Amino acid sequence: MAAYIQQLLFEPKNIIFSNIIESISNFMLTSHLKKRFLIENEEQIQEEEEDEQEEFEETPKEEYIQPKQKDSLFWCIFIAKHGYQEYLEIQNHYGSRQMDLQKKVCNYIKDNTHLLKSVNIRITKAMVQEIISDLMTEIKKTSIYVLYVYAFYFQLNIVIMHPNEKCFLKIFTENENFENTIVLLQKNEQEQYTLLNDNLTLEEYLELYNDKYCIENHIRPLKALSSYKVSELDEIAEKLDIDLEDRPMKKQEKYDEITKLIKWY
């Protein structure tokens, strides 16, 4: 193009118009150039859409979400309440965000201690003081008692699968208020937690309840031996896949075998 302009200015008599057309063809909106432009534009749009898709796919594709922090139990609850995207947006401020939330929950509990009666476990005054003490400090690992408070504060029904996946701990509020969201966590042998990507429906929870043994109290997963009939222990053993046909057991043996399988710590 520059050569053509130079020739036009200084050697106009030597201009051959067929050569002019050829020299400026790359700058003319010919059908060929238009087609090439459309193809390049489509490729660019496709690349931009792919980039946007990568940014959008912040929600994990895995069935379970695994928080990267040591206190995985706290962050599972945070994600269950606020969503995975908000969790990612915290970036490098996880410690301060956790402390901020703990203080809010702590202040709320101080003013509403009586409302803790709504959770499905008896929380004594001594336990309340211990929970408040935990919430006021930088917790390395959220305790199950603090989890009961989070369940109440965030209005969540929480199901935690035992590492053996044969039983689960139930943390419900307000006498099994099924209007609250039901979230499922998986605990492993190292006491790290992951969160099921999707909340449980009521039907899914009831199916789980019928198939697996439900632990009402993580400190005492079973009541005293005298509280059970042999048939009741047999039902629990069946849910835990304990073989009673090839290995007949007395009542105490059944009780001990069940206790060994469902202990929480």
TrEMBL record:
Taxonomic lineage: unclassified sequences, metagenomes, organismal metagenomes
Name of the protein in its database record: Uncharacterized protein
Chain residue ranges for the region called Disordered: 44-64
Acidic residues: bias regions: 44-57
